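Input for the complex:
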Amino acid sequence: CKQQHDQAVVSTQSGHYGRDPTEDVKRPLTNRRKVKPTKLRSSIKPGTVLILLAGAHRGKRVIFLKQLPSGLLLVTGPYKINGVPLRRVDQAYVIATSTVVEIPAIANDKLTDAMFKRKAKPTKNEREMFIENTSEEPKISAERIALQKEVDAVVVPAVKKVEMLPSYLRSKFTLTKGQFPHQLKF
Amino acid sequence: MQPVKLFSKGIVTGFRRGLRNQTVTTSLVKIEGVESKADVDFYLGKRVAYIYRAQKKRKNKITKRETKLRVIWGKVRRAHGSSGAVRCAFRTNLPPKAIGATVRVMMYPSRV
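Predicted:
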């Protein structure tokens, strides 16, 4: 029974003698658990080329930037090369290849989970009151576009330095006839 | 946009069974190219999709499109025997018509 385990019985009186159990108070146990981000696979390092396995960009090869505090991986196409913007991806939906690109560390305070938070949809009452506002918001905010340009300004030159890497990132990963994933070395 | 193949083909060979009784909660799948128990290690935990067609169109909750295709999702649980067959459990048990049918063994959740 869950109730019994999650509560500590705390005595409101001092001392053991003459203690009246009916005066005891039930309090929830203190939660000392610290939430840590998912452990990053040893094959994934900043600059690693990853293959996306699911989602709109499945099959595309992207560059890993860093792991966000939520545990998700922050990746970029770069956008100019294969159309993948700054995006969050779960580790489980990604294959790490052995190709690593040397990228200078990107220390940008704005690259956090908060950047990806969706704007709350206006409630029904709000919508009726401000009908003019709903069609004003552009699909991708100007901040995002600016941030994308900033990050890619660092990543794209590093990618262009490596021979054939831009066209490699432009191509997609696919399994062809006779190719079995357990036999492939990524 | 060129479609990409990010799954392995598998065939449902039947349900886990002794000669006279079968346990329908566990399906046996033979994955293409997997011939030994050592090869199965890559596929453990991978998601499996049994895709089939129905008469009526239904709206897919994720793609929001009306389609006649339906899926039953499952996962590879463990190896079955030493020749590369695999035991899978699906969210709802596979219908008997799935025996002999193709199933997609996806490459995620990935451990590589």
